[in-house]
Specification:
This protein is of the alpha/beta class. Helices cover 19% and strands 35% of the residues. Strand 9 and strand 10 form a beta hairpin. Bound molecules: zinc ion (ZN).
């Protein structure tokens, strides 16, 4: 509140907000608390013994991943919920001991699954429901399945690579469901579960009457244009990273934990209400640009500022990208809408040339690593590995090495950022196109890129296939 200031009707709102934003001290990390022994993580809540994980809550002994809820002992993941002992899983829910899998739910003790539900002890399968002992979608006896697993030398990098190729070749011959999701009613979008009346939403759970919401995995109602979060979120608009029992939030970032009736504010929490243009406030009410007003004065001034912002064209808009602290390339916008430096600068947006400088005395190129995890000595912890794709050095930590050994997995040859990009590439874009069902020719929408090169089924044909 020390930084509070009067509103100046001779200037645009966003300029005044940016001035405030640049003088109020900020928390270095978006760590919401109850984190234990989890350095090098950000945007987390309730994580314990974790390393390089981002955007999620409740994780224990997890490393290298993004976007999660309630996970344990997992490594290298993207969109992982309610799961344990998972490795290289992308968009998986309620899974246990799953490796190299995608878009699967309620599955366990399996390798290389895609679009499976309720599958156990299986390998290289796609589009299966409630099956056990399947290999490349063919049924096996328990004994022959176990013999196959014995013969697969998962500890060898070369063997995993060869198997991954075989699996991908097999998957490419199988139909894909046009849109992914279960238990939805009247929805348009992709990766939606248990949603009702959701339009153009992607990666959402328990959404009701929402539009243009993305990555809201913990439930939302009556929301429009929100990226990330939920968990008791009602009537929010045009906001980013908002959630935990909030309502009536507009054009804000990180307004969380019991806040209501907040607009154009950033990092305000703990039951704050009736705020406009505020930064880093807690337990506050009737504030504009971090200055305290009486209830009557607040509503009177707020109405005038809204009128002013309507005249300047700012009301209803999100914060201009030019006011961001971050270069375009440092934000996740660049993951979904990638631009080159020149393209970003041409728009008048910022770009960061910051490069992490890594000091490593001993560097080993990935190609020179022993092929098998059994031949990797503990001394690898004292070396930097040079990424096979980018040449960027990275390290393996002791907990990771133990995970690879316990699960008979090779150590990675690629930098964590590259592994993240590889997983992200498995997801479809936030964009739908019209195609005809490969089977019945009915017109359907799909988010699969290059749909004409794939076998894509409508829901009716897909259900007949899988059941
Ligand atoms: Zn069809």
């Amino acid at each position: 509140m020390e930084y509070g200031r009067d509103f100046d009707f001779s200037r645009p709102f966003f300029d005044q907000f940016a001035d405030l934003l640049r003088v109020v001290p900020h928390s270095a990390l978006a760590i919401l608390g109850d984190n234990e022994n989890s350095d090098y993580t950000n945007d987390n809540y309730k994580s314990k013994n974790c390393y390089l994980i981002f955007d999620g809550e409740q994780a224990e002994s997890c490393y290298h991943g993004e976007t999660f809820v309630n996970i344990k002992n997992s490594l290298d993941f993207l969109f992982l919920n309610d799961s344990e002992q998972c490795y290289q899983c992308t968009v998986c829910h309620n899974c246990y001991n799953l490796k190299y899998s995608q878009f699967s739910q309620n599955c366990s003790d399996s390798w290389f699954l895609k679009d499976c539900i309720g599958v156990r002890n299986s390998f290289g399968c796609i589009n299966l429901r409630n099956k056990e002992y399947y290999i490349f979608n063919e049924p096996h006896t328990k004994e022959s399945y176990e013999a196959f697993i014995q013969a697969f030398k998962s500890s060898s990098h070369a063997q995993v690579l060869a198997m991954q190729k075989k699996v991908n070749d097999f998957f490419a011959t199988q139909p894909l469901r046009a849109i992914r999701g279960i238990q939805n009613q009247n929805v348009v979008g992709d990766n939606l579960n248990n949603c009702k009346n959701a339009y153009e939403c992607y990666d959402g759970y328990d959404l009701q009457d929402c539009r243009y919401c993305t990555d809201c995995l913990m439930g939302a109602k009556d929301c429009l244009d929100v990226h990330v979060w939920g968990d008791g979120m009602e009537n929010c608009y045009n906001s980013l990273l908002v959630g935990a029992s909030i309502r009536n939030i507009m054009s804000s970032i990180y307004v969380i934990k019991g806040c209501s009736d907040v607009a154009y504010s950033l990092w305000c929490l703990q039951n704050s209400q009736d705020l406009l243009g505020c930064v880093s406030l807690r337990h506050k009410q009737y504030c504009i640009l971090n200055k305290q007003y009486s209830k009557e004065d607040y509503f009177d001034l707020r109405a005038k500022i809204v009128e002013h912002m309507k005249k300047t064209g700012e009301w209803g808009q999100f914060f201009p990208i030019q006011k961001s602290f971050f270069g375009y390339n440092e934000t996740i916008a660049n993951e979904y809408y990638p631009l080159t430096k020149n393209e970003a600068l041409k728009q008048g947006w910022t770009w960061s040339d910051y490069e992490v400088s890594v000091q490593a005395e001993r560097v080993i190129p990935a190609s020179r690593l022993p092929d098998d995890i059994n031949d990797i000595p503990n001394d690898i912890l004292n070396w930097a590995i040079e990424c096979e794709a980018t040449g960027k050095p990275f390290k393996v930590i002791a907990q990771e090495l133990k995970f690879y050994r316990d699960h008979h997995l090779p150590i990675p040859r690629r930098h964590p950022d590259v592994r993240h990009a590889d997983r992200l590439a498995l997801k479809n874009p936030y964009h739908l196109v019209e195609i005809n069902c490969h089977n019945c020719q009915k017109e359907v929408q799909t988010s699969h890129p290059n749909p004409k090169e794939k076998v894509i089924f409508c829901d009716d044909c897909y259900y007949k296939l899988v059941n």
